[in-house]
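User: For a teaching handout, I'd like to show students what a predicted protein-ligand complex looks like in token form. I'll give you the sequence and the SMILES for S-adenosylmethionine. Please answer with just the structure.
Assistant: Understood, here is the input followed by the structure.
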Amino acid sequence: MTHFTKGEFVLEYRGELINSLESNRRHRVYHNNLKGFMFDFIWHDKFWTIDAARDDGTLGRLVNDDHINPNCKMKRIIVKGKPHLCLFALRDITPLEEATYNYGNADCPWRSKWTKYGMDTDTNRLESGGTSGDVTQCTQHSQQKSASHIHVTESGIEVDSNCLESDVASGDDHHCTQHSQHESSFCNQAWNCFFNVFYNIVNVKSPQCTLHYTSVFKDTGSPHCLLT
Ligand SMILES: C[S@@+](CC[C@H](N)C(=O)[O-])C[C@H]1O[C@@H](n2cnc3c(N)ncnc32)[C@H](O)[C@@H]1O
């Protein structure tokens, strides 16, 4: 059984890196469903967005929010001067478990539940959901309600991270920035972890392991991703 161990690189949230000007433009023109794929973050004191609205077959864009008990967290890693958003396992992830991360304190409509008295927003959980050092997703524009899932199954994982692969393989200098107080220690740890784990995944695991986007449709009608 393949599983992810705590601290292991899981996958990259891939998409188009755009600046705030272009991001604002797309926020204006995109349908709400597409806005949910825009991951806004701060880098070098500026707002940037990874726009994963286009379905390029990669899996990072399909990982759902869990602000209560996520098993992954998003980290920003700088490779060749460009930020990449990568998910790392917060704890061991077992086969068939859905991969999730905390989108942050964004106004996520699915976190509210209807009661007989009306909408009940779980504010306490929202406040405690963020962890210092995490990169969190700004999803305040999204009204999309679908729920794709990424699960771990028996055989393993293949990570579609071409740019990461080539960057890692190049052995070039890199620097990491993380907008938190724990910047430098995280950077070193994350990069080491990232390098080792990614190398491990690509070079060791992939012959037996494939991360599949399946055509399994469950109750939500959304496609689900299985690690098989
Ligand atoms: C980056 S996409 C995640 C993949 C998406 N679920 C799909 O099927 O394509 C973000 C969008 O997924 C949906 N989503 C994420 N987490 C969710 C959750 N816990 N419950 C319901 N919908 C969620 C929201 O519509 C959000 O805008």
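For the handout, you might add this sentence: Confidence is low (pLDDT under 50) at residues 121-133, 138-150, 152-228.
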